[in-house]
């Protein structure tokens, strides 16, 4: 599926999503690598095969092989850590926060791209996965690296649109059967 096919699959009742998708892809304040890495990680995290088929090839074409791999690794590590840290954060027994995690996350130390881009991608996935602890951690890292709130917000704006397109198209696929 191409990006144009994905756009045209968005039903008229959700035309705002089509417009928002065009806006986040066409007029972003993120660099090309930041934008398409964010698109890829949030397409993966959306768990929508339709969206991943529509946006994945475009992301691959626009990212270097290193950035493409780094974005996929960000999605993978955040799929694990968002569940782990969200659970720790939600538990009323705060003693869990003192325990060793026992999880390997070496990619965070050496992501294969500029650290700020990887942080931005981790931040966007954390927004999608609703992990407040990870959101706070990655937002602090972004701000410490000099990233503005506007750029950080752009990442979760992309995440929200990608997720909404996925939810809508997956529902349409099921309801049209």
TrEMBL record:
Keyword Oxidoreductase annotated: yes
Catalysed reaction(s) here are:
N(6)-[(R)-dihydrolipoyl]-L-lysyl-[lipoyl-carrier protein] + a hydroperoxide = N(6)-[(R)-lipoyl]-L-lysyl-[lipoyl-carrier protein] + an alcohol + H2O
Q: Which InterPro entries did the record assign?
A: AhpD, AhpD-like, AhpD_core, CMD-like
| Assigned keywords, A-Z | Antioxidant, Disulfide bond, Oxidoreductase, Peroxidase, Redox-active center
Protein's UniProt keywords contain Oxidoreductase: yes
Q: What is its EC number?
A: 1.11.1.28
**Cystine residue pairs:** 131-134
* GO biological process per UniProt: cell redox homeostasis; response to oxidative stress
> Carboxymuconolactone decarboxylase-like domain: from which residue to which, for each copy?
96-175
Q: Which family does it belong to?
A: Belongs to the AhpD family.
PANTHER family, A to Z: ALKYL HYDROPEROXIDE REDUCTASE AHPD
Function text: Antioxidant protein with alkyl hydroperoxidase activity. Required for the reduction of the AhpC active site cysteine residues and for the regeneration of the AhpC enzyme activity.
On subunit structure and binding partners, the annotation says: Homotrimer.
Output this protein's name: Alkyl hydroperoxide reductase AhpD
Its taxonomic placement starts with:
Bacteria, Bacillati, Actinomycetota, Actinomycetes, Kitasatosporales
